[in-house]
Amino acid sequence: MVTYGAHAGWEALGDPSRLAIVQRLAERPRAVGELADELPISRPAVSQHLKVLKSAGLVVDQAMGTRRVYRLSPVGLAALRDQLDTFWRRALDGYQDIVDKTEECP
């Protein structure tokens, strides 16, 4: 029996606030306070969302003085992209199979 496990990043990105955080971190690294200033959620909520994103492997953090600065994880995003590329290849292969079968029919 084959089991399928989705990368935890897909589930993490399903939340609009976490997606907004990732979009901002794609621009540049930011501290929690900066993110909270840009989003309509509290600083503790931003921290909780970052915890989920970090657990999913999508962000990493670094201590800088008294604050933590977050940035996107190239490794985590590459894993998501690899899965998406696999989905895309499978879809294209499926379409090609349909085209081939259609051409075989008189």
Give, in spatial order, the strands making up the sheet with the most strands: 1-3-2
Main sheet specs: 3 strands, antiparallel
Cα-based radius of gyration, to the nearest Å: 19 Å
Provide the residue-averaged pLDDT.
90
What is the SS-derived class? alpha+beta
Question: Can you tell me about this structure?
Answer:
- By secondary structure, this protein is α+β, with helices and mostly antiparallel strands.
- The chain is 65% helix and 13% strand.
- The chain has helices at 8-13, 16-27, 32-38, 43-55, 74-104; strands at 30-31, 59-64, 67-72.
- It has a three-stranded antiparallel β-sheet with strand order 1-3-2.
- Strand 2 and strand 3 (67-72) form a beta hairpin.
- Helix 3 packs across helix 4 (43-55).
- The radius of gyration is 19 Å and the shape is elongated.
- The two termini are 38 Å apart.
Give structural attributes.
single chain, alpha+beta, three-stranded antiparallel β-sheet, 5 helices, 13% strand, elongated
List the helices and strands and how they pair.
Blueprint: H1 8-13, H2 16-27, E1 30-31, H3 32-38, H4 43-55, E2 59-64, E3 67-72, H5 74-104
Antiparallel strand pairs: 1-3, 2-3
Quick structural gist:
By secondary structure, this protein is an alpha+beta fold.
